[in-house]
Amino acid sequence: MHQDQSYLLDIAKFCQAILRLTANMTEAEFQHDERTQFAILYEITVLGEVVKRLSTEFRIQHPTIEWRRIAGMRDRLVHDYNEVTLDLVWEVVKTNIPELLEYITPLLPSKD
Fold first, then answer.
1. Contact 49/7 with Cβ under 8 angstroms?
2. Burial, 73: exposed, middle or buried (Cβ in 10 Å; 0-12, 13-18, 19+)?
3. Could you tell me which Pfam families the record lists for this protein (predicted)?
């Protein structure tokens, strides 16, 4: 389970980076900012990969989080990239990422 704690820290880091990159951005600005789009797509892809590495036991213990959907988004970005719209990505950024961060924050290892 120790490895899961490391993965949770990575997930938090990626969520925070996504939120930081889009903090003062409107959807229209995002739609026209190719650099931010590429950065966010990368962060979401790696986030999905990290979720896949969490132990089955951990994911079972925390069924509130839709782990399969997070991993599925990664798969869509990698394999079905032509079907992913920026509208969908923006929705993930503004809704799902904050929810995920809020849920995992209490699960993060303490800094003590």
1. no
2. buried
3. HepT-like (PF01934)
**pTM (2 d.p.):** 0.90
What tokens does 33 get? 């900012």
Residue 32 known to be catalytic? no
Contact yes or no for 47/74 (Cβ under 8 A):
yes
pLDDT of amino acid 91: 94
Q: pLDDT per residue over 8-53, tens digit each?
A: 999 999 999 999 999 999 999 999 999 999 999 999 999 999 999 9
- Which among 2, 20, 35, 79 is annotated as catalytic? 79
* In the block, residue with structure tokens 């809704």: 95
CB 95 within 8 A of CB 18: no
